[in-house]
Amino acid sequence: MKESTKSNIKIVGFFLAIIGISLFIHKKKERTSFREKVEFFHATSEDARGIYTGKTRAVYNPLDQSYKISPWLKENSKNKINPKPFGSWPVISLWIDPQDLDGENRGIIAANNTFKKGRLWERAVMFRYYQNGELRFESMAGLRQHGRGNREVKNKIKNFRLYLRKKYGKEYFLEDLNISLARKAQIKTLAIRKEIGMNFTNDISGYLVNALGGISPRFSHAALFINGEFYSFHHMTQHLSTKAVGEYLGHENFAYAKMYSDKSIRDKTLYDGLRAKIEDEKLDFDSVSKLLDMDSIMSSLLVAMYTGNGDWMQGVYIKDLNKNLWSHISWDYDVAFVPSYHNAKKADRNKPSWTIQSLYLGLDHKKAKRVWYKKIRYLVFKKLIFKDKKFREYFSKLVDKLFLEVIPSKGLEDKFSLYERLAKDSKNKKVQGRFSDLVNFFKYREKNFCEKLWQRVKLRPQSCRE
Fold it and tell me: Where are the beta strands (DSSP E) in 77-228?
């Protein structure tokens, strides 16, 4: 082989090697960039898996800064409050660096940060829980804002979410409080929310749903302190993630279609398929019972009607793929028992609370411009209540269960005894007045509801004849 040919081969080989090395470096950078993007997504996503490993890696530096326990917190977390003046109220005490709470740069409730979500907007806090004046739980934890509309700057009292993690301290909250979907679940995340309308509405509405055969989380009330100062009367419950639903069902084989959230491709496809079947004009009680757990769906709607909860299009639809049935998990009963902009004309808002709209919630949402009103519960009730004899008999018996079994029950009586003590111990005239309103609502609502049931759908259950 000629020297010139050998030389040309070497030159070509050299350039090919350069190209190969360049391609290798480029591909490696692409892989690294993709991996970092994925990890950053998990760091900032509201619903992403917990992937923080504690290892020192560049991609986790933002999280290290988010979760850091500042010198201020180290010092002030030693401070404790006196919960005894609040009597029978459970007390939650949070200590958080003011810069992490409302500081312009890091504050999770600062005006310029209030709509920011995810793991980068979680801050370290000292969390203590008191019951009957005694400390029952203590651990460092992570704190984020919780919810949607409550994040508006005009809302001065915020909702929060507490994350218990091994990296902070304890991994699970108390199991015996019964504030989870499944009884005695291992609670890693707590939602701590204020009562928007009438106090105690979430707890009592959830109780009614569960007693009627539906699905709702359980709640407990608490006086919330932040940095040693009383903040507001809130309630707390397990945050309903897919993990909580898996614990409730006892397996992971289910679809999860949250009403106000993005859905996976599979879950959206399944949910859209359900919607298409519900919209079928040939729908009847027998066919819908093969698709839906009717007690779950209609218990939720009946409680919304009875309590006048205008903001009832909340929660999540789940499909137990082992049983091939859809159910609904209800939550957010903030505007139950009180006239609100959702379901009352201005002229009606000063009338007694027990006269607020009821059957409207299952019949008239077609007039609304927002398409989210047309959901499963509304469609089933609207289609079947006038023409399907089996459905009318079913709904009539459900109303009887509410008025003849659930409302007169010992369980509800115990609830009202608890609320009476809490109202008294709050030493707050608004809370005490709202409790009185709640008592009157249950005293007078049945007659009003039965009248509307007859006027709108010509249904008169046995309980409405007495």
Answer: 91-95, 123-131, 134-145, 160-163, 189-194, 220-226
